[in-house]
Structure formats: structure tokens, C-alpha cells
């Protein structure tokens, strides 16, 4: 956020609760005895928690993990297939769901500030300049940005309109940021790196979730998401969110007249017809208004749609087909982008197998003779 901005927010999943309702009343003045008892209970609770053994997320437990365990995150952006972070042959950073939650980020550009290999700068109330390896500006076009595998750059100048990439951060599973050229795998725009935003599958976002907050610059924001089941193997999640942001101020105190507001909604459906096949359909729609000093407000609206199908033939080969499109409309310009990709992965060699009692040279790599030939 801009300097001087303060934000107060609240977000929590809503869990069904059985039992009698609770009633609250406000006393006319505080009671010293109640205050003293409450303070004592807090102190005792703090001591009780301090005496508990290390949990899986405590610093004590993390210190006991090996470097390999700490690097055991799974990434897909380096070679377009799942692999361990420490085995990836690239300079890559991963921003996890927990990192985003702890940072207090309210938008995707703010979350990208957690990646040390990116240059992230906020220009005004709505514009961002994000790039890597220098030459950063609002029209930077040497960085490929993907959201669930869908390219989000505009054909107008091959850059990204960051103000309308309003991904609900509560649904983000991870953000992978690759440094260096990636055009061999990803094609155009991947000159200085790749940003791949991966959201949660519908079955991992079930139930009701409500989030809200407000502050001095980001005056108000709120959203809700609900996930449910349509069948034995079909899950869905739908969300809606909105925000309003105040204008920025020039160094001499003059208002920049760039305040704006926007709302967005979306739906995702995941179907797993078998253990080896997955089908995903998802889409988003947004609409907003941006103030400007010289004319009327700028109307921005648009949407996107994505469909993907994947099938694993064996442990060493799979195929993926993806179709997507994006439409953006403004006061005087509009653009649309349709993308299609088909990928076939096949690894014909197994990993080296070594006998436990054999010599160091007893490892061998065996060519696959059947889909389940790896041991």
C-alpha cells in the first residue's frame, strides 16, 4: 500500500455451530473486578500455551526439519509438470497461501512484493509497475503472467493491466515466480521471467468464507465465497467481492483525482470423472469506475473464461488441453485475447535404480516397456 495507509480487516470461515445462541450486552461502565479477573485468565492462558510442546508450525519444530524437507514444496512452472522445489532446474521463488495471509496483502500486486526477484512499485491509486531484471514501468512487457495457466497480458502493448487482475487472495494456493528467460517452455513475453498464479481446486475451498476490512486509502473491501458439491465427483465454488479506494495526493498536497471502485464475481467447477482425468471450467466478470481529473469517470469492465482437461496415461506421461479467453473494455479502448494450448508430457526413462548391497556402479536406468514399468 501507499505510505501512510492503514488497514483494518477481518476474515474468517463460517462453520455451522450447534447449540443455544449467545446474547451480549454492553455495560454502562467497566467493572474493576471483572477486568482484573480477565487479565488473570489471559496471563494463565498464555503460560499454559507456552508450556505446550512444539507444534508442526512452531519455530522449534521447523528447526528440526532438514533442508530437503523445507524445500519439499511442489512447483509446476519450471518444466510444466509437478516437481519438488529443490529439484527444479531454475531460479524460482514460491509465495504460499500462508505467506499471503500473514502479509496482509489486499491485492495481487501487493502479494507479489513478497518475491525478492521482482520489482513492484505502485504508481497511483490504481496503476502498478511490475517487472524483473530492471527497465520497470507501467508498460513493462517482458514478463509473462499466468493465472491458472491463462495468459493475462493485453494485445494492446503485451503488458498487464494490473488494476483489473483482482484475484481473490483467499483462493490462491501459491504463486510461483521464475527468474530469467522462459520462452523455451512458455513462448512470448517470458523474456525476464514468469509469474504463475495457481488457485485452489473447488474441493479445497468448501463451505462459506467471508472477508472484509477498510482503511484510509483502501476505504472498504469485502467479499464472500461459497463452495459446495454438485455430485459425487463434481465440486464448485462461487465468489463475489468489491472494494473502493481513495485518491492519492501529490507532494504539494493537490489531489490526484484517481479514486476508483470495482466489483468482481466468479465461478469454478471441477469434475474428476476418474482418478486419472480432471476437467475444470471457470470464469470471472468485473465492472468498475475510475475517476480522472480532465474528463468523466472511466468505465472498466470485462471477463474471462477458461476450460481445461487433463489425463494421466501413466506415472510418466500425461496430456493437457486448455482453452481460454479474456475480454477487457474501457471508455475508449477495448481488447480481447483468446488462447489455446495442448501439451503432451512423456518421460520414457525411469529414474536410476540401485541395489542396496551393490557397488556404487550398480545403478542403472531402464527403458519403459509398459506404462507401469518404473520401479
Descriptive overview:
There is one protein chain. The chain is mainly β and 375 residues long. The protein has a single domain (64-346), classed as TonB-dependent receptor, plug domain (Ferric Hydroxamate Uptake Protein, Chain A, domain 1), CATH 2.170.130.10. It contains six helices and 18 strands. It has helices at 32-50, 59-63, 67-70, 97-103, 108-112, 183-186, and strands at 7-14, 74-75, 83-84, 91-96, 119-122, 128-131, 144-147, 150-151, 172-179, 193-199, 207-215, 218-229, 234-245, 260-274, 277-290, 298-314, 317-329, 334-346. A nine-stranded antiparallel beta sheet has the order 1-11-12-13-14-15-16-17-18, with no helix packed on it. Strands 4-9-10-7-8 form a five-stranded mixed beta sheet. Strands 2-3 form a two-stranded antiparallel sheet. The protein starts with 6 loop residues before the first strand and ends in a 29-residue tail after the last strand. Residues 15-39, 41-57 and 348-375 have low confidence and may be disordered.
Key traits:
375 residues, mainly beta, Ferric Hydroxamate Uptake Protein, Chain A, domain 1, 6 helices, globular, disordered C terminus
Would you summarize the structure shown here?
By secondary structure, the chain is mainly β. The chain has a single domain, classed as Ferric Hydroxamate Uptake Protein, Chain A, domain 1.
The major sheet is characterized as:
9 strands, antiparallel
CATH topology: Ferric Hydroxamate Uptake Protein, Chain A, domain 1
Order of adjacent strands in the largest pleated sheet: 1-11-12-13-14-15-16-17-18
CATH class: Mainly Beta
Count every beta strand, where a strand is a DSSP E run of 2 or more residues: 18
* CATH homolog superfamily: TonB-dependent receptor, plug domain
**Uncertain spans, ≥5 residues at pLDDT below 50?**
15-39, 41-57, 348-375
Count of helical stretches? 6
Strand fraction equals 35-45%
